[in-house]
Design goal:
Length: about 190
Amino acid sequence: MKIKIGLIVLSIVMVSCLKDRILPLAPGGDPPPPPLADTVKVLTEGVLRINELVASGSTLPDEFGQNNDWVEIFNPAFNKWVMLEGGKTFLSDSKNNPTKYAVQKDWYIPPRGFLILFCNSRCVENQSINTSFGLSSSGEDFVIAYRSNPGETLVIVDQMTYTPYDFTRSIGLRPDGVGTTYFEMIMTPGAPNQ
């Protein structure tokens, strides 16, 4: 009997410790913030990676039911969440204008996790980030930047330049988050690159 009670208590403790790490299953819900000690808030170069990109020919519908350009951001850390802090994290399709779109609210990426954002010129954040710009099929840049306060130095967290490619495929890093060479591959949104 003591063993059963001990297992029940242990199960309750484990569930209560892990509850902040479990993302909601309902679409459109905001994930709960992870414990503060496990979260990287100040973004520096390389803390996030542009892992995969589709500039044309997407088969992934956004929250509005339209197949649009998308970018997959990857958190390469094994034990830290990363927060894209609203008003301080920027996304752009131009290295000359890296603050083109300011992320509106806080978004969390778990360790070794992915965040898909849509480049569909809608400029809203509900179930996902929908930027104020689209991606050009003729090639351009994609930039993630961060500034902790107005007037402080803008940090380029990651950036890439792409050229036209086979638009039945995506371009991405292989393995996830490693290197600077992007390869054509099958589209794998929210999953490891192949």
